[in-house]
Amino acid sequence: MEDGSAGCGDVGLAGFIAPGDEGGGRYSDDCHVAEVNDDPAIGYGVRSYALNPERAEALWAESINLVGERF
């Protein structure tokens, strides 16, 4: 668990420090762009399913369905 200042570091990386080609659609982890890591025994990185656009679209559609709102 990060404290407030550590969590703010990731926001600074994403918004101000990282080169543009390292920004959109990426996850940050400890102030760097997270690498894909599908090993459940390791607690850092981003899982490959989180980067899947089809799964993201399905999750968004289900979220709309659950809350009964269209955005």
What descriptors fit this protein?
71 residues; mainly alpha
The description of the largest β-sheet is: none
Mean of residue pLDDT values: 77
Radius of gyration: 15 Å
Number of domains: 1
Structural class: mainly alpha
The low-confidence parts are none
Order of helices and strands: HH
- CA distance, first residue to last residue: 32 Å
The fraction of residues in strands falls at under 5%
- Counted by DSSP, the helix tally is 2
So what's the overall shape?
extended
Question: What is the number of strand segments?
Answer: 0
> Helical content, roughly?
40-55%
How would you portray this structure in words?
- With 71 residues, the protein is an all-alpha fold.
- It has two helices and no strands.
- The chain is extended and about 35 Å long.
- It has one domain.
List the helices and strands and how they pair.
Blueprint: H1 4-17, H2 53-67
Question: Care to give the gist of this entry?
Answer:
The protein is about 40% helix and about 0% strand. The chain is mostly helical and about 70 residues long.
